[in-house]
């Protein structure tokens, strides 16, 4: 059974602060996180500020194709206000989501961020191709196992062509255990 970690609680609270407009409290939580995760962290020189976060994420915040702008704009503050609160909110949320992506790698928590924030998911198909699953794609929903039919539950709707994204499990031979070069996508 998986328990909540301090990092998960701290980052969730920072996200809640950002959603309620308490930006400094969110940034304080992020600084606490970094203070405990980064060796030789010095709050005087390394601390996050509103200006640093916005400067780093300003390009993604302004992009109309960014998932926060494209799929979540109704739940966020509007962009273009004089106090830049909508832009700052998005920048802090992007920062938190980037940290969560790295912190919870291989823990299965990213899936819930993907669903909650309508983040497009990129998959590699069994033939080596790439496919993006947008928020409205029914393949993003976890399929109920066949055993649930006993309880008269119907499976989640799937598109007719399910072959586009499918995991292939095979046992590798010994030659595949040799170190392979890293290829950037």
Could you explain the architecture of this structure?
With 185 residues, this protein is mainly alpha-helical. The chain has 2 domains: 6-116, no CATH class; 121-167, no CATH class. It contains 7 helices and 2 strands, in the order H-H-H-H-H-H-H-E-E. It has helices at residues 6-19, 23-37, 43-46, 50-62, 67-71, 85-103, 110-116, and strands spanning 121-124, 130-133. It has a two-stranded antiparallel sheet. Helix 1 (6-19) runs antiparallel to helix 2 and helix 4 crosses helix 6. The longest helix is centred in the middle third of the chain and has 19 residues, at 85-103. Mean pLDDT is 82; it is low at 162-171.
List the helices and strands and how they pair.
Elements: H1 6-19, H2 23-37, H3 43-46, H4 50-62, H5 67-71, H6 85-103, H7 110-116, E1 121-124, E2 130-133
Antiparallel strand pairs: 1-2
């Amino acid at each position: 059974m998986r328990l909540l970690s301090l990092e998960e609680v701290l980052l969730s609270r920072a996200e809640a602060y950002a959603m309620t407009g308490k930006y400094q409290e969110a940034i304080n939580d992020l600084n606490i996180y970094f203070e405990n995760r980064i060796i030789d962290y010095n709050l005087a020189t390394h601390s996050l500020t509103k200006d640093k976060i916005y400067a780093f994420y300003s390009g993604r915040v302004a992009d109309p194709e960014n998932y926060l702008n494209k799929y979540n704009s109704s739940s966020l503050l509007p962009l273009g206000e004089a106090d830049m609160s909508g832009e700052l909110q998005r920048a802090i949320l992007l920062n938190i989501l980037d940290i969560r992506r790295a912190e919870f790698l291989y823990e299965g928590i990213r899936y819930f961020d993907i669903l909650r924030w309508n983040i497009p998911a990129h998959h590699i198909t069994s033939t080596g191709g790439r496919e993006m699953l947008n928020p409205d794609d029914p393949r993003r929903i976890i399929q109920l196992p066949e055993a649930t039919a006993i309880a008269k539950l119907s499976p989640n709707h799937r598109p007719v062509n399910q072959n586009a994204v499918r995991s292939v499990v095979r046992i590798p031979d010994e030659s595949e255990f040799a170190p392979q070069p890293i290829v950037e996508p």
